[in-house]
């Protein structure tokens, strides 16, 4: 949360942001199958604030690639909540993940539809 402190050279106040609000981490999205086709890329790196969750990263991805919303969100029409469609798999560093999981620098997130074959 930003705080204020007096400016010693005038009667004005300067706004100081918490360090956590200014620091960022870098994560990489890996996109597969038709999700990658819709996004126009198989990989997307983003910088995001240090205390971000996967939900924040999904929001960032969809802001950059809005066409994905219709494919990966349960109800893209409302966009009030980033709930993934039931047929979309979400992984964080190769393991199943949830929207409220915390991110760390260097994380790899993946979105992909079910895969079949033999």
Could you please describe the fold and organization of this structure?
The protein is of the alpha+beta class and 118 residues long. The protein is built from four helices and seven strands. The protein is globular and about 40 Å long. It starts with a strand and ends in a 6-residue tail after the last strand. The mean pLDDT is 84.
Key phrases:
7 strands; 29% strand; globular; alpha+beta; 118 residues
Put the structure in a nutshell.
By secondary structure, the protein is of the alpha+beta class. The protein contains 4 helices and 7 strands, in the order E-E-H-E-H-E-H-H-E-E-E. The relative contact order is 0.21.
- By DSSP (H or I, 4+ residues per run), the number of helices equals 4
Query: Outline, from the CA principal axes?
Result: globular
Structural class: alpha+beta
Radius of gyration: 18 Å
In round numbers, the mean pLDDT is: 84
Helix content: 10-25%
Low-pLDDT stretches are none
The amount of beta strand, in percent, is 25-35%
Strand order of the largest sheet: 4-3-7-5-6
Give the number of DSSP strands.
7
- In whole angstroms, the N-to-C terminal distance is 52 Å
Largest sheet: 5 strands, mixed
Which H/E pattern describes the elements?
Answer: EEHEHEHHEEE
Question: How do the helices and strands line up, and which of them pair or pack?
Answer:
Layout: E1 3-6, E2 13-16, H1 19-22, E3 24-31, H2 33-39, E4 43-49, H3 54-64, H4 69-72, E5 89-92, E6 95-96, E7 108-112
Parallel strand pairs: 3-7
Antiparallel strand pairs: 1-2, 3-4, 5-6, 5-7
């Amino acid at each position: 949360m930003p705080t204020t402190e007096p400016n010693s050279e005038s009667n004005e106040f300067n706004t100081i942001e918490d360090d956590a609000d200014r620091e960022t981490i870098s994560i990489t999205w890996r996109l597969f199958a038709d999700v990658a086709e819709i996004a126009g890329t198989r990989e997307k790196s983003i910088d995001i604030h240090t205390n971000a969750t996967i939900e924040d990263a999904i929001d960032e991805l969809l802001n950059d690639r809005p066409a994905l919303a219709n494919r990966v969100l349960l109800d893209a029409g409302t966009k009030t909540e980033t709930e993934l469609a039931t047929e979309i798999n979400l992984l964080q560093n190769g393991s199943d993940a949830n929207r409220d999981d915390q991110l760390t620098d260097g994380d790899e997130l993946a979105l992909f539809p079910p895969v079949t074959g033999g």
